[in-house]
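In this notebook, the sequence line spells out the residues, with the fold written below as integer tokens. This is how one looks.
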Amino acid sequence: MTTTQKLQRIQKYSGKTQEKLARDLGVSFPTLNSWINGKSQARSKAIEKISSLYHETFGDTSIELHELDEKIEKLKQLQKQFSEPFSILMSKKDIYDNFLLSLTYHTNSIEGSTFNEPDVKAVLFDDVTIPNKSVREHQEAKNHQGALGFVMRWIRDNNNVIDEEFIKHIHQILMNGIMHDAGEYRDHSVRIAGVNVPTSNHLSIDKHMVKYIDTFNQFQKKSLAQVEQIAKTHAQFEQIHPFSDGNGRVGRLLMLILAFKYNMAPVLIKKERKQAYYTYLEESQVKTNHIPLTSFIFDALFEGYKLITA
């Protein structure tokens, strides 16, 4: 694949404007525009940056276990610096509001919402109706606000042990007014669009969810095992795909519980990394190679730490 093709794919799938992409690469807009349109060629250092950004956007499944060592050490340092991320979020309204805004914007964008971040902010905090946007998009934003609040209160008041009713209630809040069967497991077959991942037969969902919850409620002592547990259970939940719709948003909220259980920052998967996210999920689900997804979750945790230090 040529450098021009890589840049075109990055722009298309990350949703970045040429201005933002130019800033990320440390070049001027005219220079980037010339590369994208094939009018000039990038030099070797710029090609390295473009290749790195391409792997960040679409994923690199060749990651080895030893490559996680630096991320483990970085996480340990952050945990020493911020010993109780959950308490920080719950005690400071400005930080919580930024957390709410970021999670709502990115999780809904991953699922196709066309709201930009200012749109989401206006809907969540000012109860504004955005012109030329669907009713569903407004409901998705407000419902996610309610579901996140429910999850955070539950973490505050409980012992981090989850059950099926808790998961169903998250879904009921998220999909209220959007799906007729909100809060209920599906009674039909589904396929995950764009990937070759078999989902659970609807007759086996109850059995598979019992196994998922058992794995989720286990306690891991070491940092790597903890982050790997977040990654593996997320991949497991998404492959079960227990609901007709809304599984991704429920699954990303469930990851918060494990992160806070281990005194980590929230997991924030940004919309710009959607394609890499899907690549790593499929690698974990189909090939049972959990290392790339685990590495990706480390990165998502580091994004979460930015929310509590903003």
